[in-house]
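Memo to structure team: turn this sequence into structure tokens by end of day. - J.P.
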Amino acid sequence: MSPRPKRSRRIGFHPIIRGLKPIGVPFKKDDFISLHYEEFEAIRLADYENLPQVEAAKRMNISRPTFTRIYDSARKKMARSLIEGQGVSILGGDVYFDKIWYRCNSCNQVFEVEKGEVQFCIECKSEDIENINQSLSEWQQHKQDCVDHSIELNKYCLCVDCYYKKNGQGKCGNPSCS
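Reply from structure team:
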């Protein structure tokens, strides 16, 4: 019997940063901890907005026990980052956004639109913009392809960025591979 499929988590706010780097310690480019969007959202709702876990779970369209597990995972990752001096990269996860989010690669402005395509940044008018929803979809598809490939062939996948062998469950540590 196969497990029940995961329910996607609703994300109401996109982070304005892509991650954090430690200051005052030697830092390696690939020394990041991956914080998924749902973990970021759990911290935002519980710690920043001070919502009770039941209300936060409703906003994310998940059960309270699931929210607790996500929140606990996020806090452990942040604690590990602080204690071990590792960077944090915010990306991916089993999530969906209520709105269409864009990021300007020139000024790093993050902005949302109700519908339709955006041709330029609302802040600096640059055309170098990224559709965050599309990037997330591509990340999710890459991860699913890796899992499907490793299950069907009973082999390891190679991370497209660093060629780390993994079976769909492991992480190579590169923020773009997690």
